[in-house]
């Protein structure tokens, strides 16, 4: 398989679908991580970034996580982990909606993708978890922090310390996924959600997403600065002004 075949990219108007295509388990080798990183960066630089749906080829694996065949000494592992960390940063900061469509297993680094997504649709057969502790591996610290933020400390500890996999129902209960659909409907539903979110006012969506993802890392002064910066951006935006006008036009007039 050519390296370029490992990530399939399709564009339909305002939604880009990326498919991890490394059978049998869509493992994340360094080349694939690099392709994902380059694609997220390129799309984020567009004047109007599209929505992204990320999925895996086939029905058994979204992805089995990092390719253990590439785990070696620190000189090999250091640049690999730096690329993966950079990818998680790009996913977190991507200004448009980022939706994961999961069929089958999403474990290790793949679960970190889910935790950095804005919305996750999974099938009933989905399994998620952090099995690294049982395989001589270590999750990215950024992924661990996101697990604590989204799942809570106790749930993150259970997944990380035990290394067991969790089924779709439990994954939804703890917040690892948002909704469950049939295998045939996962991609359809993920596309619907992505298009719906992409239809929101772009600058407001990006500002809210940035605050949700990054404000936990800021002090009060930085929070004030980012609020003023976002305020200045959307108050002068035509689509934001039109949305406020539509809302005001629906309000009952005072006597």
> What's the alpha carbon Rg, rounded to whole Å?
19 Å
CATH class division of the largest domain: Alpha Beta
For the record, what is the CATH homologous superfamily label of the largest domain?
Answer: 2-enoyl-CoA Hydratase, Chain A, domain 1
In total, the number of strands is 10
Residue runs with pLDDT of under 50 for 5 or more positions: none
- For the residues shown, what is the average pLDDT? 90
Q: How many angstroms does the end-to-end distance come to?
A: 72 Å
Query: Biggest sheet, in brief?
Result: 6 strands, mixed
Oligomer: single chain
Shape: globular
Task: Give the secondary structure arrangement, pairings included.
Blueprint: E1 7-12, E2 15-20, H1 30-44, E3 51-56, E4 61-63, H2 74-93, E5 98-102, E6 105-107, H3 109-116, E7 119-123, E8 127-129, H4 141-151, H5 153-162, E9 165-167, H6 168-174, E10 179-181, H7 186-198, H8 202-214, H9 220-235, H10 238-249
Parallel strand pairs: 2-3, 3-5, 4-6, 5-7, 6-8, 7-10
Antiparallel strand pairs: 1-2, 8-9
Helix pairs in contact: 1-2, 3-4, 4-5, 8-9
């Amino acid at each position: 398989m050519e390296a370029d075949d490992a990530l399939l990219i399709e564009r339909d108007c305002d939604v880009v679908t990326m498919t991890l295509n490394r059978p049998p388990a869509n493992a994340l080798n360094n080349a694939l991580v690099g392709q994902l990183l380059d694609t997220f960066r390129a799309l984020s630089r567009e004047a109007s970034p599209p929505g992204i749906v990320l999925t895996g080829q086939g029905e058994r694996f979204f992805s089995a996580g990092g390719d253990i065949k590439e785990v070696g000494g620190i000189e090999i592992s250091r640049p690999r982990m730096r690329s993966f960390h950079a990818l998680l940063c790009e996913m977190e900061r991507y200004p448009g909606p980022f939706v994961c469509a999961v069929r089958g297993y999403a474990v290790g680094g793949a679960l970190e993708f889910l935790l950095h997504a804005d919305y996750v649709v999974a099938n009933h057969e989905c399994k998620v978890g952090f099995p690294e502790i049982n395989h001589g591996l270590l999750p990215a610290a950024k992924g661990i922090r996101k697990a604590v933020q989204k799942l809570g400390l106790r749930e993150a500890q259970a997944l990380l310390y035990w290394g067991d996999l969790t089924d779709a129902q439990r994954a939804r209960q703890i917040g690892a996924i948002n909704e469950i659909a049939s295998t045939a409907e996962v991609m359809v539903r993920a596309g619907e959600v992505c298009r719906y979110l992409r239809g929101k006012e772009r600058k407001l969506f990006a500002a809210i997403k940035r605050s949700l993802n990054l404000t936990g890392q800021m002090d009060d002064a930085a929070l004030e600065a980012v609020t003023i910066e976002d305020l200045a951006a959307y108050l002068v935006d035509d689509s934001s002004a039109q949305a406020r006008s539509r809302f005001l036009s629906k309000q009952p007039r005072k006597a």
